[in-house]
Amino acid sequence: MAETPTPPGIDIRPLDTVDAVHLASAVLAEVWGGDRGGMPPNLLRALAHSGNYAVGLYEGERMVGASVAFFGAPAERSMHSHITGVLPDHQSQGLGRVLKRHQQEWALARDVGRITWTFDPLVARNAHFNLRVLGTRVTEYLVNHYGPMDDGVNRGDETDRIMVSWALAAPPVPTPGDEQVVASVEIPHDIETMRREAPADAAAWRRRVREGVLANVADGLAIGGFDDERGYLFVRP
After folding, report:
1. Which pLDDT score, from 0 to 100, does residue 146 have?
2. Cβ(68)–Cβ(47) below 8 Å
3. Alpha helix ranges (H) inside 41-152
4. Residue 33, pLDDT score
5. 113 by DSSP, 3-state: which?
6. How many angstroms separate the Cα of 54 from the Cα of each of 3, 16, 103, 112, 136?
7. Tens digits of per-residue pLDDT, 180-222?
8. For the whole model, what pTM was predicted?
9. What is the torsion angle, in degrees rounded to the nearest 10, for the CA atoms of residue 52, residue 17, residue 41 and residue 10?
């Protein structure tokens, strides 16, 4: 990952006190529309205290984001990034990239070779960041992976997810060239607004994208990258 300068006044600190843990839980709840169960303080405290990745993103003394990851099986030398969020008034400022760079450096210092995580395949900005900016590799399409969720972001929707793997010491996976692309599956440019204003249309997009991805996978293709206009780009493995 290219060097990402930390903006002035921004700091990343471990969640090493009870107060910090409760604050991080509240920040993540705000990001996810008020759901206090997404990362409860007791679970976050246990993860942090047992040596997993648990940090707060601060602007001065105000926590404006947080990120939590836990280790995978020892032989895999992997870590799974469970949740990362930045408060709405600090989004689109490159802070997600700052957190990922910190997470990468933290993991490499502990001999972790890769980080995995999931994201909603309908959220274009996340697909762009994960596949085009970080250059992660798609490993799975997971249908309704978490089941029903009651937070303000996911309530009323099925929780399909794409699993990605980030090889920390390897070059980013490049976006495939046109000559490699066999098929594509378009996604909406702003599913968040559509969910609020036209939930039936959002649900139709969920089904359309799921069916398109699974059909291409059944044909032996794999998601090789993402394009802001065409959506997911499929290649022959």
Report:
1. 75
2. yes
3. 41-49, 95-108, 124-127
4. 76
5. coil
6. 22, 8, 9, 15, 22
7. 999 999 999 999 899 889 999 999 999 999 999 999 999 999 9
8. 0.89
9. -80
User: What's the rounded Cα separation, in Å, for the pair 235 and 237?
Assistant: 6
Q: Return the H-helix or E-strand segment holding 210.
A: helix 199-218
Report residue 47: phi and psi, to 5°: -65, -45
Q: What is the pLDDT of residues 17-32, one digit of tens each?
A: 999 999 999 999 998 8
Question: Look-up: residue for tokens 């099986």?
Answer: 73
Q: What is the pLDDT of residue 45?
A: 95
Q: Which residues pair with 69 in a beta bridge?
A: 53, 81
Give the chain's mean pLDDT. 91
- Interatomic CA distance for residues 222 and 173, integer angstroms: 13
Q: What angle do CA 144, 149, 155 make, to 5 degrees?
A: 100
Distances (CA, A) of 194 to 72, 106, 148, 159, 162: 35, 37, 19, 16, 20
* The dihedral sign for the CA sequence 29, 34, 39, 41: positive
Q: Which residues contact 221 (CB under 8 A, 6 or more apart)?
A: 182, 183, 234, 235, 236, 237
CA atoms of 208 and 187, how far apart (whole Å): 9
* Distance (Å, whole) CA 47 – CA 66: 13
**Residue 27: CA atoms inside 13 Å, Cβ hemisphere, count?**
27
Dihedral sign for Cα atoms in the order 86, 28, 223, 53: positive
Residue 77 clears pLDDT 90, i.e. is over it? yes
By C-alpha distance, which of 144, 159, 136, 221 is closest to 184? 221
